[in-house]
Model the fold of this input.
Amino acid sequence: MDVGMALALCGAGMATLLSGIGSSIGINISSRAATGILSEKPERYGQFFVMVVLPGTQGFYGFLAGFMTMLRLGFFGGTGLIEVSTKLGLQVLVACIPVAFAGLVTAIYQGKVAAAGIMMAAKRPELAFKAGVVYAVMVEIYAILGLLTTLFILQFGISWPTPAA
Done:
């Protein structure tokens, strides 16, 4: 494997890995808050479920970016891998940075916001959606912006060679 392909695959792996780590930490934070309350109020499970799983979306964004990168590299097309220069490999690596770090950071903070929403909803259940979910979704927007930036760079910012026959 040449250096360019290794750099490109590092970008795909980094997008998936860092956003996955962020998601697991974020879900850990929000689920610990929920389980503490559910031990005394199990009927609130449905109300807390969305807030617990919201930080997991960043892992999906990173996976999508990694998959799209590998698709552009020719891993899934049946036409063979493209020739990846060191320059192209660096471009792909840099293109994957926004979703990787946005996924890592926003998932952790979204878990904290969701945990606060869960704690608030324990005392004021009528505010679970208004304050708990809506505030957590506000953090989600920045994860989506990281994904879109990565996808736009991959699609429009890189001059991709055609696959070798």
